[in-house]
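Per reviewer request, we include the raw input and output of the structure prediction for the construct analysed in the revised manuscript.
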Amino acid sequence: MENTPLLEGLHVVDLPSFIAGPAAATVLGDFGADVVKVEPPHTGDSYRALSRAPPTPTSTGSITPGNWTTATSAASSST
């Protein structure tokens, strides 16, 4: 039996910035969806400032309008 993620092949654009929206996108990503989070330019996600823990790598990319580079692509190109 194959162990393919349940939502593999699903593409999600995460636009909200309040708790329920990003939480839902995180759950979708945990089940295999390809999630891209769009954040405000120059500030990023405001909830990131509330966390004292360093960010953990996930399948979620992050872009800001005008930048259009994903966090996953930027991370892989810097190594």
